[in-house]
Amino acid sequence: MVSHRVRRLQLGPHFVITIVATWERIIIVEYTTNEQNEKYMLQSVTNALRIIELLGEYNFLTLTEIAEKLELGKSSVFRLVATLESRGFVKKDKYGRCRLGMKFSYFGSVVLARMEILQASRPHLEELQRNVRETVHLAIWDDDWNIRFIDKIDGAIAFHMQSFVGLPKTCYSTATGKSMLAFMGDDFIRDFLDNVPLTPMTPHTITEPSKLLESLDEIRRSGYCLSVEEDELGLTCIGAPVIDTSQKPIAAISISGPTVRMTEHLSEYPTKVMDTARLISENLS
């Protein structure tokens, strides 16, 4: 499987940016123009793209460091970064340092979802659903620290749950989200905890960072996530990550059902979920 995701954005008749993203980092932005039409270029757009390029080379930079490296006025950098931040292209940590935002990973996720993961996973998800007869989900990492369900097969036995394809969902309370987060790497997880308040979805949601870290450790050891009523009361989910050739999670799958039914199958369902995730990974490689 090709680990780079490419998205080209046409910003005008003579201006194109190319975004190349991986789950580890943005490899990133190239912009092209027709030389004879350079008069159409906007300096503010050019400088914004220079900031994006610069942040693609560093983990974090302050506004002062950006201004110095690009030889721009600090007030101009402040306005440009504020604009990029408002659109999700730049994020600031609690110390005011800037980094590339999750919007770029989202672009990569969108490309991946449309081109590969849906086709590769659908037959395996259907087989899993036939075996367990519960609701099956496929999720990818989304912008702003959330996940997004991109496929869902309803269970054979009617059960209402609050999940919708295409809408974002919290990461830390869901089996798919924690399955991916656990394998994102220590730096990513620290950044996540610095930026995301662990707001309870139910009384069972993990809201203490230390407890969440313990949960992520267990997921890495076992290879799957068991979420018992952490996102919805009465709902238990079992999730596992879909790992690419670079050993990073590109998606996650889960089965979900009423706690009373799911607890009867905790000895068998985790293996079924992990086996399905592995088959999808192999199908993508």
Automatic annotation (TrEMBL):
The organism's place on the tree of life at top rank: Bacteria
UniProt entry tagged with the keyword DNA-binding: yes
Positions of the HTH iclR-type domain: 42-102
Signal peptide start-end: none
Limits of the IclR-ED domain: 103-285
Keywords annotated in UniProt: DNA-binding, Transcription, Transcription regulation
Name the UniProt record assigns to this protein: IclR family transcriptional regulator
Xref: InterPro entries: GAF-like_dom_sf, HTH_MetabolicPath_Reg, Tscrpt_reg_IclR_C, Tscrpt_reg_IclR_N, WH-like_DNA-bd_sf, WH_DNA-bd_sf
GO MF term set: DNA binding; DNA-binding transcription factor activity
BP GO annotations: negative regulation of DNA-templated transcription
